[in-house]
């Protein structure tokens, strides 16, 4: 049986307390699948080595216009949003 893919961002009890799911995910699975508000399934990295590897890998990009880039909403109009970093 496959596990349900959790919704992201995780629900936060209050502004000063981190989401419970964040600690659970970090402890059990440094690379997990989550569903964004747009319905896209993406990888969530919580381990230091995994994040460092991703940030230095040229196959990954913050460019929202790249083919297959995950969306945080179902709207396509991002206004004047520009990628923060090249790539």
UniProtKB/TrEMBL annotation:
Q: Name one GO molecular function term.
A: iron ion binding
What residue spans carry the region label Disordered? 1-27, 56-87
Biased amino acid composition, Basic and acidic residues: 59-80
Superkingdom of the source? Bacteria
Q: Which InterPro entries match?
A: Cyt_P450_sf
Could you identify this protein by its name? Answer: Cytochrome P450
What does the organism's lineage look like at the top?
Bacteria, Bacillati, Actinomycetota, Actinomycetes, Kitasatosporales
């Amino acid at each position: 049986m496959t596990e349900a893919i959790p919704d992201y961002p995780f629900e936060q009890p209050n502004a000063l307390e981190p989401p419970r799911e964040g600690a659970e995910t970090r402890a059990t699975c440094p690379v997990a699948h989550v569903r964004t508000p747009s319905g896209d399934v993406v990888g969530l990295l919580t381990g230091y080595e995994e994040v460092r590897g991703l940030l230095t890998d040229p196959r990954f990009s913050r460019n929202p216009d790249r083919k297959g880039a995950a969306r945080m909403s179902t709207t396509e109009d991002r206004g004047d949003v520009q990628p923060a970093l090249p790539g």
